[in-house]
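Chapter review: from sequence to fold.
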Amino acid sequence: MKQSDSDGLIRPVSVVVLGLLETTGPQTSYELWRNVELSVSYFWQVAKSQLYAEPQRLERAGLVTADQEDSGRRRRTYAITGAGRDALIDWLGRPPEPAQYHDPAMLRLFFTDAAPRLATPLARQRVRELTETLQFLEQPGLGGDQPSHRRVLSWGRLTVRADLAFWQSVLDDLEDGA
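The token string follows.
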């Protein structure tokens, strides 16, 4: 039973769950959360509550299966089904929706003429944060063995470098009195 995005079955959080189960294998909700934190969270934020609830919803729809431990913590480990794989591949084959970009720091910068004294601390904070993010993204071994993951990591590094260069130029201008 194949349903489309318009049916409301496949949502962005569904794609995250199905994609991780397909590319990294069966996982518990906690393992999914950790993998999101180490991978897609840099370009796609998912609320923890959504991520923990989504595998159960996908199980009811027949897109994943669950295996529950008989003892101990009784964790449920989820795996993608053939129908789940088909739904993921169907979604991957569709044209992407336009990107929506929200940058709270950029919004603040846009309005700092209302409080110019706040521009320099904002720029310093962004330079510091982006430097830390870039250091993390440039760790050896990050990105794994999958070509698509390495490509997205490359995009992330390039994007952070560009953002860092921008914010550093803003900081330099502000410190030079421009």
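Two observations follow directly from the output. Strands lie at 64-68, 76-80. DSSP finds seven helices and two strands in the chain.
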